[in-house]
Amino acid sequence: MFKYTVKRLLYSAIILFFVMFIIYALMYNMPTSYVETKARELASRPGANKSYAEWLADLNAQYGMDKGVVGGYFVWIGNAVRGNWGDSWAWTIPVTQVFKNTIWYSFALSVVAYIFEIIIAIPLGITAARKQYSFTDYFTTVISMICISMPTFFLATLLKYIFSVKLGWFDLSGMQGRNYMNLTDFGKFLDVAKHFVLPSITLIIINIGGLMRYTRTNMLEVLNADYIRTARAKGVPEKKVINYHAFRNTLIPLITTLGGMLPGLFSGALITESLFAIRGIGYASYTSMTQADIPFIMFYLAFISIMTLLGNLISDLLYGAVDPRVRLS
What we know:
329 residues, mainly alpha, MetI-like fold, 16 helices
C-alpha cells in the first residue's frame, strides 16, 4: 500500500506540473493583454510614481512575461512554490490573503451540504433499490432526475422568491443582518448561520440527485449478485442481508465517489455563493473574473487543479483501503 501511495503521489505531481503549465500558457496567450491594461491603470492613478512603461516592465518581470512561455512559466511556478502568488488586482491585497479571508466560509457551507447530501441521498438510494419498480422507486427516480436537471440559478431564485420575498424568513443575500453589530458572539454566529440556510439547501438539492442515482444503481447490482440470493435462500434475515452483506459491498464504489467529493469542500460553489453574496472562495473567484484579476484567477485555477488531483488520489487510496484486490495488485 505504501508503494502504491508513493506511485500515485508521483503521478499527481507530474500531472500538476503540466496542468499548471497549461494554465500559464493560456493566460500568456490571451488575445487581450491584461498586463498592459493593469499597467495603464496603475500609471494613471493620482500620485503614481512610475510611468506606464515602468509599470509594464515591472509586471512583465513579476510574471515572467518577458521571458517567453517556457521561461516565464518557470519564473511563475518558482514564485508560486515559495508562496508568492502576487497581489490581487481586484482586492488590492496579496492573493494568499484573499484566499485566507474566503476559504473558511466556503468550507463551512460545503461541509453542511456534504453531510446532508450523504444523510439524504444514500438511504433514499438504498430504499429505491430494495423496492425496485415500486411507487417509492419511481418517486425517488423522478425526484433525483429533477434535482440533476434543475439549474442552480433557477433553484436559488425560486428559494429566494418563496422564503425571502413571500414568507420573509430569510434575507435575499449577504452574510449578516442589519443588527449584526449589536448582537452577542453567539447571536452573530446564529445570524451568519441563518444566512447560510438557503445556499446550503440549494447545494443539497442540486447534488443529492446524482448521489441518489449512483447509490441505487450500485445497490441493485449487489442485490442481484449470487451471494445475496444464497444468503436469502439460507434464511438470513432481510435486514441483515441489506445492512451487512449488500451495503458493505456497495460501499466500495460509493466510498470512491465520496472521496472524490471531499476536495469540493474547499473549492467553493461559484454560482451559489455569487447568487447569495456569500463571501467564499467561489464568490471571490467570480468577482476576480469579472474584473480581469489575472493573479487571483491563476491562483484559483491552480488551486482547483490541486483539489481535483487530490480528489483522485483520495479516491484511489480509499478504493485500495476497502478493496483487497487493489492492494494485492
